[in-house]
Design goal:
The protein is α/β, with parallel strands linked by helices. It has one domain: Rossmann fold. The protein is 41% helix and 17% strand. The protein has nine helices and eight strands. The chain has an eight-stranded mixed sheet with strand order 3-2-1-4-5-7-6-8, sandwiched between helices. Helix 4 links the parallel strand 4 and strand 5. Helix 1 crosses helix 5, helix 3 packs across helix 4 and helix 5 runs antiparallel to helix 7. The longest helix is centred in the first third of the chain and has 17 residues. The chain starts with a strand and ends with a helix.
């Protein structure tokens, strides 16, 4: 298996909001970083045409990934039309097999937006089927199944407002400036959030969540995760193995 990490989300800027600090730490630990999205971010604008915003957001995503020497990939599906169906699963599986990551990060199964929740399901299947010979795509299967981690939900809550209970925290205090630079590369989204959500706290909101998750884990800034531990998936917490006990805490250490 390649020494590669795949952060696979719904839209450009999701990875930067949810796990860029951890990606930066893993890059420094010697891993190749790949950031991917299922959709192109074509609905994330209040002023541009679909073609214009896709071009802008792809440029921003490439710039953000490049800050940590990473690559950006997009499956080119549409925002709000991410469904758990054959096309999206096959396209995601193709990319997973091409990269052959050791670790995959994706959205929380519980989040405010259906795009995020569907992406989570799609990536679960793309990882689980990585070694299946008879999945009808030309890319060769590989094994073992990648480690799969779900990130925190946006604003750390599900669609009913309940706080997401994490099981793993990563200290990103040393990487918070890098995370901020990566998110700031998505300049178009400040204007979009202002118009659509009436929010003008793009970077401040990110740091607020990281600070909150840090406070509950004893770090200054933290990103939180839950590991997929279902049948057929690796059971060890490889983040602890790579980054060390000074950087990674589990739920047993927090209680």
């Amino acid at each position: 298996m390649n020494k590669s990490i795949l952060a696979f989300f719904a839209h450009p800027d999701d990875a930067e909001i949810l796990c860029a600090g951890t990606l930066s730490l893993l890059q420094k630990a010697g891993y190749n970083i790949h950031i991917a999205t299922i959709a192109a971010g074509d609905k994330g604008t209040a002023s541009h045409s679909r073609e214009e915003i896709i071009r802008i957001r792809r440029t921003e995503a490439i710039k953000a990934a490049g800050i940590i020497g990473g690559s950006f990939h997009c499956l080119e599906l549409e925002d709000v039309f991410i469904f758990y169906q054959r096309e999206s699963i096959e396209k995601a599986s193709v990319l997973v097999r091409n990269i052959q990551p050791e670790i995959v990060f994706t959205h929380s199964p519980d989040d405010y937006m259906v795009d995020h929740e569907m992406t989570s399901k799609i990536l679960q299947t793309a990882c689980f089927t990585a070694g299946m010979k008879n999945l009808l795509i030309p890319e060769k299967p590989f094994g073992p199944v990648p480690y799969l981690y779900y990130t925190d939900a946006v604003e750390s809550k599900d669609k009913l407002g309940r706080r997401i209970d994490l099981s793993i925290w990563v200290d990103i205090s040393s990487a918070i400036d890098t995370k901020e630079k990566m998110l700031a590369a998505h300049a178009s989204q400040r204007d979009w959030l202002m118009a659509h959500h009436k929010v003008d706290e793009y970077l401040m909101a990110m740091k607020s969540v990281a600070r909150s998750r840090g406070e509950e884990s004893g770090f200054k800034y933290a990103e939180g995760f839950r590991q997929h531990l279902g049948h057929g998936f690796p059971q060890e917490n490889i983040l602890l193995e790579i980054l060390g006990k000074e950087t990674v805490k589990s739920i047993n250490q927090i209680k």
